[in-house]
Structure of Nitrogenase iron-molybdenum cofactor biosynthesis protein NifE:
Amino acid sequence: MTSIPLLREREKQIHDKAGGAPFEMACDRHSLAGSVSQRACVFCGSRVVLYPIADALHLVHGPIGCAAYTWDIRGALSSGPQLHRMSFSTDLGEREVIFGGEKRLYKALTELIAAYRPKAAFVYSTCIVGIIGDDVAAVCRRVEKEQAIPVLPVHSEGFKGTKKDGYKAACDALFGLVGTGDTTDIAPVSINILGEFNIGGEAWLIRRYYEQMGVQVVSVLTGDGRVDDVRRAHGATLNVVQCSGAMTFLAEQMQARFGIPYIRASYFGLEDTAKALYDVAAHFSDHPDVRARTETLVREAVAAVMPELRRIRAVLEGKCAAVYVGGAFKVFSLIKALRLIGMRVVLAGSQTGNADDYAHMRALCDPDTVILDDANPLELSRFVVEKGADLFIGGVKERPIAYKLGLGFCDHNHERKTPLAGFEGMRNFAREVHLSVTSPVWEIVKQSSFKC
Ligand code: SF4
């Protein structure tokens, strides 16, 4: 393979532990123009956070392409309504770019609310709306008054920052709902689960763990989400925030206004799942029964999956993985989960990590791991080959890179269909990795066919 040169302006966003250079990771910055970043836009960041609220109307105010790009983007599962799976758009064209799109937005909103009777509506601003200057908030206020449901503007113009800014715009919109519902039947031992999107049914698994521990789950934000649950989320006594970036903003806002503390958690891998549950039990330390039930749950769940994990480990021992996903917190968990099944991580990176995240990631990684922030496809291709990865873990945009290079792939993002979180999720993850890495197809697709 021809060696792929790196863009000079991106050199500080790449660190090879084996190189011995000082660790000064540049991150938390806008993507370099022309780099073809793997990152999504601000609008997409908002969309992925709010999309799983299944009884809300989601209207994309912009050209049809923005709606098509994020149509059913996460495939997040709902136990009831399916309204979130529709991708409504105001389909702005040249006429609206010249004369404004507010009338069209008003018409679309009122017609859709009449047709679908949603519990609330989210209206997403896209790039073009930021350019032509439609007053989306004013239209939302008018429709909210007329239709008597919450109509929330999401200020997510695609060009105005990074995907992380989209998370914040989504949290700002959600915060408009929190605090408006009835909290009378909420127990003192209660939590909200933030940052869990129920892509493969994970929210149901995690909710079940907490219920077994005797902890009431007031709302999951936003997996299998319901507007009424969001409205009464301020009645919980603790917020448990999964993932490093997506919903920390909301947790901070709820702490400031309602005095609800928050802790961070990850449910990927046995170690982190157990830690998450024990941390919640520790928060309710004046209820020792919660701790006792947690110990039983963890002991039994780990014992149920370990025999199979040991069998898989015997096959995968010494294999190498590349991990490139959205949030850095997930990378930490994946490094530990892969180690449990005998694999080393030779490439680790994220779209949205900050300086603390990368320092922690570096400490967790093996001595020859390369760490990447906001990578592009050519960088990923180069290091995956140079480091000899047998498996790539990523999302929809990393899948073709892996397949073109002739190595196994595990989707740990929007397109997975089985739950990968929790104890059962770790078993599913190990099975998928095992199947992909040991597939005979990679003997046919030779890596040497890749040329740059
Ligand atoms: S909001 Fe802008 S960057 Fe995002 S999909 Fe639409 S046009 Fe593209």
